[in-house]
Specification:
By secondary structure, the chain is mainly α. The longest helix has 34 residues. The protein has a two-stranded antiparallel sheet with strand order 1-2. 0% of the residues are buried. A hairpin with a 2-residue loop joins strand 1 and strand 2. The protein is flat. Helices cover 50% and strands 8% of the residues. Belongs to the SWI5/SAE3 family. InterPro entries: DNA-repair_Swi5. This is DNA repair protein SWI5 homolog.
């Protein structure tokens, strides 16, 4: 690209500094000296401060108390749920079930559901190709809609 980079003198606290700016496009008219200067880049001292949300109002102790109360309630609820699950696990183990056996059963159910989903997609596509309803295709293969 045939463009020359322009440089603008900016006076600051420590004297004059040259700041490189966007190159001029070929064939464009250049502004008179002093116009269209780029704002000097200054490092802000507020870059490392935390984000202050406009939705939160600072200094409201009532909301923090409510938050603490609701958090405590949630913790107690979760502890109760954990105790219920531990009791259910103990009952299943007492009935002779093992965790590995249950995991294997769950994996088999997932595989069954995946195979069933593929079958339903195929029946739906077959119905579309034939121009009939899925109900008609289910009936042709001796299947109930709940299957």
């Amino acid at each position: 690209m045939d463009s020359e980079e322009r440089s603008v003198a900016v006076s600051g606290d420590s004297g004059q500094t040259n700041v490189n700016t966007t190159p001029w496009r070929k064939g464009s008219s250049r502004p008179t000296k002093g116009l269209f200067r780029r704002t000097p880049v200054r490092i802000s001292r507020n870059l490392n401060t935390g984000f202050k949300s406009p939705l939160l109002s600072p200094g409201t102790p009532r909301s923090s108390r409510v938050d603490q109360v609701s958090l405590r309630e949630d913790i107690e609820e979760l502890k109760g749920r954990r105790e219920e699950l531990s009791t259910q696990i103990a009952l299943l183990e007492a009935e002779g079930y093992s965790v590995e056996e249950l995991d294997q059963h769950i994996d088999q159910l997932h595989e069954y559901n995946d195979i069933k989903d593929v079958g339903q997609m195929l029946l739906g596509r077959l119905a579309t190709i034939r121009g009939v309803t899925t109900k008609d295709v289910y009936g042709e293969f001796g299947l109930e809609l709940e299957d």
